[in-house]
Write a structure and sequence with these properties.
Strand content: 15-25%
Radius of gyration: 22 Å
Distance between the termini: 65 Å
Strand order of the largest sheet: 4-3-2-1-5
Largest sheet: 5 strands, antiparallel
Number of helices: 13
Order of helices and strands: HEEEEEHEEHEHEEHHHHHHHHH
Shape: globular
Oligomer: single chain
Structural class: alpha+beta
Length: about 375
């Protein structure tokens, strides 16, 4: 049985990260684990001496101490992602009758009934922008393996209660978040007008967290791998710019600039030398961003290409996020895909640094 668990763990890992497209729910059975507090069925991702990590059919990553395992067995059920109706029913039961559910493309939206159509439209529009952005840059996306739940709470109190229930700490300034464990987005409304067709103040939170969720579910990021913060937070902050998340409506070049982040970039990196000096640390050490998380997004702002500091910032952006649309730039697309097993973090950073330095002369000259 131990050998079977190890084999299943390998298959489960491949299935989740999408490294082997031939692995699917017909290839192996679910593993059922009974613990001292209940039972869990799914695919084992990690089975260590201290902790067990399993992938459930609804996309959750269930983690529990190995010592809690009473017994485990391979069932006669094929592993498969939960069906839309099954997930919707479970969420409806969890959140109560005052909420409604709707399928919107790859999303399962849960929101107060009156605002459900508006939220569905918003998430669909954002995902469309995400797909268009990646397609234009020849970034291949995989189909999300699970429906992506997005819960919009009516009040801050409900949001806080939910977050506490699932062990996700939030602060007074937290408007929403994407959870790697549950694969859900959770946010709340604080506008008096639920049916307002314009984005209200939760807009940037919605865009930011939906980008996280889409990136993790389409293969750009990896839910199981440790990845640089600048690749994760930076991509989400990039999409906060209207010209990025909705290039159809906002086609002017200036709309592609995240003005808030640009101001921060200029504050932290006032000249070309400061960018060049900081680059190796920025790309290899998360401690810089942990002291000030907003810095993670500064590398993904898109100031106009020009001389001096802005030229260097633009060159960095051109390498990491905005690859050139020609043969010479095609190789840049793979660099920010932190889940790519072919690159260790330090090797990716070295490649990026070299490419940036090569481009700096072209931009600054």
């Amino acid at each position: 049985m131990r050998i079977s668990v190890i084999i299943y763990r390998t298959l489960g890992l491949l299935w989740l990260v999408g490294l082997d497209t031939t692995v699917n729910g017909q290839d192996f059975r679910e593993l059922e684990v009974k613990t001292r507090t209940g039972s869990i069925s799914g695919l084992p991702i990690s089975w260590g001496n201290d902790q067990v990590l399993m992938l459930r059919s609804d996309g959750w990553l269930a983690e529990f101490p190995t010592r809690e395992v009473v017994e485990h067995r391979i069932t006669d059920r094929n592993f498969r992602p939960a069906q839309a109706e099954e997930m919707a029913k479970a969420l409806q039961a969890e959140l109560g009758p005052s909420y409604r559910t709707a399928i919107a493309g790859p999303f399962l939206i849960v929101a107060p009934g009156a605002s459900l159509p508006v939220w569905s439209e918003r998430f669909l529009a954002l995902y469309g922008g995400f797909q268009n952005y990646c397609a234009t840059r020849q970034i291949t996306l995989r189909q999300p393996p699970f429906l992506m739940p997005a819960i919009v709470f009516r009040t801050r109190e409900e949001f806080d209660t939910y977050s506490q229930r699932y062990g996700h700490p939030v602060t007074a300034s937290t408007l929403g978040y994407y959870s790697l464990v549950t694969n859900r987005i959770a946010l709340y409304e604080f506008s008096a007008s639920e049916n307002n067709s314009e984005f209200f103040p939760t807009a940037s939170t919605l865009i930011h967290e939906a980008t996280h969720q889409a990136a993790y579910n389409t293969g750009i990021h990896d839910r199981l791998a440790e990845q640089p913060l600048w690749t994760i937070e930076g991509l989400a902050m990039l999409f906060e710019a209207p010209g990025v998340y909705d290039s159809g409506r906002f086609s002017q070049p200036e709309s592609r600039i995240n003005s808030t982040r640009l101001m921060g970039f200029r504050q932290f990196f006032p000249d070309a030398q400061s960018v060049s000096d900081a680059l190796p640390i920025l790309l290899t050490d998360d401690k810089y961003f942990e002291r000030d998380p907003d810095r993670a997004g500064l590398l993904h702002d898109r100031p106009p290409i020009g001389g001096g500091a802005l030229g260097r910032a633009g060159a960095l952006e051109a390498v990491i996020v905005e690859p050139r649309h020609d043969a010479a730039g095609a190789g840049f697309v793979e660099i920010p895909r932190a889940g790519n097993p072919a690159f260790a973090a330090e090797h990716r950073a070295i490649v990026i640094i070299v490419q940036v330095e090569l481009l700096l002369g072209d931009v600054d000259s």
